[in-house]
Design brief:
heterodimer, A: 163 residues, mainly alpha, Four Helix Bundle (Hemerythrin (Met), subunit A), 2 domains, B: 100 residues, 3 helices
Chain lengths: 163, 100
C-alpha cells in the first residue's frame, strides 16, 4: 500500500517535472511545477515529515509559485521564440554526459544509503523542528532573517522604474 | 517500509531533469523554474536521510532551503522584470551586451 503511494507520487513528480520542460508557454510550466510540489509534499508525508509537507505546500506552492505566476501574467509574454537551434549538436554530447552524471550520482547515493539502516523513525513534528531550530541552529536562523531583509530590499531596487 | 534507495533514485532523476531544463531552455523564467526543480530534488534527499537516520537536522536544513528559495525567487523575478523592461525579451541568448 505504502509502496503504491510512493510510486503514485513519484510518477506524478517525474511526469510534472518533464511537463515543466516540454511546455511551450512558461505559464503552463509554472502550473506543472505546482503539481510537482504537491507530489513532493506527499513524499514528505511518506517519510514522516508532516510539518515540512505542510510548509512545502504553504510556502512553495502558495507563496513562491504565486509570485512566479503573477510575474508571468504581469509581463504578458509573447509566444516562446525557440532559440534552441544554436549549438544543436551539443545535444548529442549532452545526453551521454547527463546520463553519465546520473549514473555517478546514483552510485554515490546508493552507497550512502546502504549503511543508513538505523530505522529510528523519529517523526518530524513541529516541536522537534522548532526545538532544533531555536537551539542548535539559532545563529543560522537569525542570519536567515537578514537574508530575507536583503532580498526584500534587492527586489524593490531591481524592480524600480529606472534601473 | 519504502527502501531509502528509492527516494534517492527519484531525487537524482528529478535533479537531472532540472539540470537538463536549465541547459536546454532559453526563457529565463523557465531557467528559474528548473532551479526550483533541482532545489526540490535536494530537499527530498535531505528529508529521506533525516527520516531514516532519526535526526532532525536534515529537516531543519530543508527549512533553510525554503527560505533561500523564496529569497532567490523574489530577487530573480525582480531581475526578470527589469530585464524585460529594458530589453523587451526574456531570451537569455539575446541579452549578450557583456558577451565578448
Amino acid at each position: 500500500m505504502i509502496e503504491a503511494l510512493f510510486f503514485l507520487f513519484a510518477a506524478m513528480a517525474v511526469g510534472a517535472a518533464i511537463n515543466v520542460l516540454v511546455q511551450k508557454h512558461v505559464l503552463y510550466s509554472a502550473l506543472s511545477l505546482i503539481v510537482l510540489l504537491v507530489s513532493m509534499s506527499g513524499l514528505f508525508i511518506l517519510l514522516n515529515a508532516d510539518f515540512l509537507a505542510v510548509i512545502n505546500v504553504i510556502v512553495y506552492a502558495g507563496a513562491i509559485m504565486v509570485l512566479f505566476v503573477f510575474v508571468i501574467m504581469l509581463l504578458n509574454l509573447p509566444e516562446d521564440e525557440d532559440g534552441a537551434d544554436r549549438m544543436r549538436w551539443l545535444k548529442f554530447l549532452g545526453i551521454p554526459m547527463g546520463l553519465f552524471l546520473l549514473f555517478m550520482i546514483l552510485a554515490t547515493l546508493w552507497n550512502a544509503g546502504a549503511d543508513a539502516g538505523v530505522q529510528a523513525q523519529m517523526p518530524g513534528s513541529p516541536e522537534a523542528i522548532g526545538r532544533s531550530l531555536f537551539t542548535d541552529y539559532l545563529l543560522p536562523f537569525e542570519v536567515t532573517s537578514l537574508l530575507i531583509l536583503i532580498a526584500l530590499m534587492g527586489a524593490v531596487v531591481f524592480a524600480k522604474k529606472e534601473l | 517500509m519504502i527502501p531509502l534507495n528509492w527516494f534517492l533514485t527519484l531525487s537524482a532523476v528529478l535533479f537531472l531533469i532540472g539540470m537538463l531544463g536549465f541547459f536546454i531552455k532559453r526563457n529565463i523564467i523557465a531557467l528559474l523554474l528548473s532551479v526550483e526543480i533541482m532545489l526540490n530534488a535536494v530537499n527530498l534527499t535531505f528529508v529521506a536521510f533525516s527520516s531514516r537516520n532519526g535526526h532532525v537536522s536534515g529537516q531543519v536544513f530543508v527549512f533553510f532551503v525554503l527560505v533561500v528559495a523564496a529569497a532567490e525567487a523574489a530577487v530573480g523575478l525582480a531581475l526578470v522584470i527589469a530585464m524585460f523592461r529594458n530589453r523587451e525579451t526574456l531570451n537569455v541568448d539575446r541579452s549578450n551586451l557583456l558577451k565578448w
